[in-house]
Amino acid sequence: MSDKAVFVTQPYLPQLEEFIPYLQDIWDSKILTNGGPMHRQLEQALADYLGVEHVALFNNGTIALLTALQALRITGEVITTPYSFVATAHSLLWNGINPVFVDIDPDTLNLDPAKIEAAITPNTTAIMPVHCYGNPCDVEAIQRIADNYNLRVIYDAAHAFAVEDKGGSILRHGDLSVLSFHATKVFNTFEGGAIICPDAKTKQRIDRLKNFGFVDEVTVVAPGINGKMSEVNAAFGLLQLQHIDKAIARRREIDHHYRDQLNCVKGIQTINGTGQSKANYSYFPILVETDYPLTRNGLYQRLKDNNIFARRYFYPLISEFPMYRGMASAACENLPTASMISEKVICLPIHPALEQDDLEKIVQIIKTS
Ligand SMILES: *Cc1c(COP(=O)(O)O)cnc(C)c1O
């Protein structure tokens, strides 16, 4: 049909000319990293934009997850979701922590709070939920359980940039929240990430951990890592921030178009939000049910044959990868909902530069297959 490839996402890139003055500033200052002026400005700008207390920037979201676990000295077992990008559970393994997978809720596709308690053991120290597709978890139910059992909560909020509930930023919940600014995310700094934390003392510990544990020139207080964001990445974030509302607004239009067009298609189910007052439209997942004429993989292939590269996020489940599948909690019978959803899901292309005719072509293929 068409020759142009359409991908599930495409990084938002402002005009190159707009970035040159930022680069000029870096060349003038000759400060390339180590918490320079761009880094400081972006931390403040993000705290203001997101409406959160403290932002600690990182070189990527995965190192931020690793560091968040270190910052709270998490050990033993951590309850998490199998329905996520693999970095969520990998961050636990890298810290010598055992992930314990708990099933998801069929409506929200997030960790099912009703199933958490049964997975708690004397070794459980924390819960690591994911706001999957930017849809908020049941943060209150999760906090209640955490309070009852004295557990910490670290949200993998990689999908949840700018998402708000009635009380403000979704990132204020739990002990810490972790963002990813990878090229494929709603807000990108090429590579990057951040930890959102409520108090200055924790922020200070995180800042030390991401800089080898240095406190001053001669004092190292922890076996830290190199998690610092460079000045170029931070500068790009400052520029990106000026375009973010426009980018999210275009995503919203695409989301609404898909919903309007696909809601009446037999065998295609769209996913509703989970009560956010501000969404970021980061993904557009659909579930391909048995009464659709094609299987999920059939539709995935049909789109591919038409140069539409949708993605099956999240298939396979994290719990199916070789380093996890031997764990008791990874058994398919323990994760019936996640297993079922993982077999039905396709994420359709959604990004600010997606053109209307491509959008209509995607809808047409789904409607007429
Ligand atoms: C992207 C992503 C990460 C990892 O972030 P990076 O910045 O790519 O390291 C972690 N968790 C989830 C849920 C993600 O989508």
Q: Would you write up a description of this structure?
A:
This protein has 369 residues and is of the alpha/beta class. It has two domains: 224 residues, 3-Layer(aba) Sandwich (Aspartate Aminotransferase, domain 2), CATH 3.40.640; 125 residues, Aspartate Aminotransferase, domain 1 (Alpha-Beta Complex), CATH 3.90.1150. The longest helix is centred in the C-terminal third of the chain and has 32 residues. The mean pLDDT is 97. The structure holds pyridoxal-5'-phosphate. Belongs to the DegT/DnrJ/EryC1 family. It comes from Azotobacter bryophylli. InterPro entries: DegT/StrS_aminotransferase, PyrdxlP-dep_Trfase, PyrdxlP-dep_Trfase_major. GO terms for molecular function: transaminase activity.
Strand composition percent: 15-25%
Helical proportion, percent range: 25-40%
Amino- and carboxy-terminal Cα gap: 14 Å
Q: How many structural domains in the coordinates?
A: 2
Count all strands and give the number: 16
Largest sheet: spatial strand order: 2-10-9-6-5-3-4
In a nutshell, what does this entry contain?
By secondary structure, this protein is of the alpha/beta class. The protein has helices at residues 16-29, 37-50, 61-71, 87-93, 139-149, 200-209, 231-262, 296-305, 336-344, 356-368, and strands spanning 6-7, 54-58, 77-80, 98-101, 124-128, 152-156, 164-165, 168-169, 176-180, 193-197, 214-216, 219-220, 268-270, 284-288, 308-309, 345-348.
